[in-house]
Amino acid sequence: MKLSKFCNKISLILQAMWCVVLYFIIEAISRHSFGEAWEYMTGRPLVFAYNTAFIFTTMLIVYLFHRRFFWRVVVSVFWLFLGAVNGILLMNRVTPFTGPDLHILGDGIEMMEKYLPAWGVVVGCIVIGAVLLGLLILFIKGPKYKEKIRYRYVVPLIIVGVLAFGGVTQLALEKRVLSNYFGNIAFAYEDYGYPYCLVTTIFNTGIGCPRDYSDEEVKRIQKTEENLPETKEGDYPNILFLQLESFFDPTLVKYLEISEDPIPTFRKLMEEYSSGYFKVPSVGAGTANTEFECITGMSLHYFGPGEYPYKSILTETTCESAPYILKELGYSTHAVHNHEANFYGRRTIFPNLGFDTFTSEEYMPEENLTNPLGWVKDSILTDEIMKCLESTEEPDYVYTISVQGHGDYPEEPLIEEPEITVSGASTEESNNQWEYYVNQIHEMDEFVRQLTETLADYPEDVILVMYGDHLPTMGLTVEDLENKYLFQTEYVIWDNMGLAKKDENLASYQIAAEVLDRVGIHEGEIFRYHQARRSTKNYQVDLETLQYDLLYGEKYAYDGEKPFTRTKMKLGLYDVTLDSIRLVSDTDYTYYIQGTNFTPSCQIKLNGEWYDTVYISPTTLVITGTELDDFDRLSVVVRSNSSTRKALSKSYDRAVYALYESNQWKLTPKDEGE
To answer: Are 347 and 571 in contact (CB under 8 A)?
Structure first.
């Protein structure tokens, strides 16, 4: 009893000590290393202390209850659970657990099946069950605080503690111990700690209402654009954007020694066509945010730290974009990406940006052409881009997102005879990473050559904008780069129209407006604003107001109306067709499925069950091992084949059906759902 009373007297000190241990464990789980957690704690002690204080503050609520020990355990389990979720996610992706991911916690078993092997799901369920049982026993049998709780003192003291922590937070931001802008969300979690970053991504989202926001203020901003000419009439060119994954000029890295120029084509194009440095919103990751800025003309600077609009506001509403604006001028709009349609939620987000079609890797016949890390090579994109241009009579807007240059880059040599060798980095492992990366972007540069040569012979006017989405994840610092800036790649605007060369540095949210201006298109609130106001006084202030109005405000710029409706976007350019099914071997019951537009992601569904399918060609699939009987129902479905994601058959359903009856197949009309 004496020990219990003594512990109660110093409970705040003991609680603080436990929070240090608890937070250390959380960081070790998130970083998959006790050693890295120790380096973080000793290397950034103020940040570590701040996050410990954060956990300590959340634990102050235990003083409102008699079962203090039980509630300390509950709060500790809550934080450990969040740490475990982050650790599991980081085993399968580079983006840590953020606010927009909270919805996955509601689907616990599904989340575990998605990110854990089968045995891991079993272990996870056992651990969760054991923890819940332990908490129940602790609630019944655990110790209780015997004395009367003096709420008139306890409640004000807890409030004082919370307010004091708020003051510490503000001081830490002012002294730059913390930051409220995350250029790379993964790096931010490593630098500023999991608790702070998680809560920031939960509560600090969207664009805050500007102080002077009103109908009059928006109308004033619109009047500053009156000097723009009217959009020209006549034929419009095809407008192509090519976003190159992690692509930049590695010769800008001071310490690297590279055996030959890895990007000769891109460099030559920059010398001959309009080009310059390209300011991007992130470093090392964040492809979707560069993409968002280029498509919408909106700056990520005014959104929450590390926020992905693809995971927040765009899941709820449409947004003014280049596709929407160009559709009003008669354009067809296409997105192309040689990775999964669900990556960054693009399959559900692109209809809110006005795209008519989206061709992801599942709809590409050469999707199995991959680099040593398994990313689909960019060389297959030339055909996919040309298919988009040839699919319509109208001018086309094609936004292509490449993936070949994606990390993580291997520390061991994966390329037996690299075309380009690299040295100069501080370690052999780093040299291997750079050598792998340089050879990948060299292949991407070759893809750029093939694409521009193909487009040069195209009979219609074309503008092709190419740029890197961000620097690679290589731990670069400002001091390592000749251009002294991490949030910067390079761009070039190629064309077959004879446009004048105009070199200038641009931000990713300015590039679309610049291209539209070059061809005489002055439409869309955001794009007109950039065309009229770039480099003028209060440019950024008024841009924030306009963005808020269009996405979160009263839509004063649109006279209070919402002008854009979600498009009925089609996955893939062309429908899968099922033309015939024939038995070729009655020994093992092998059937040839004949049709069109098959890809390696096509799979047979027989009587509602998925069936092992062999892809032969865009016109032939093969199934073996089951004799088909009367009234068997067979369908061909395009579905995700990722090993790290559950296949979403309904989401990808572009199915055609056939019914087996009287020893023959009767083809049925295409059905969009099951």
So the answer is: yes
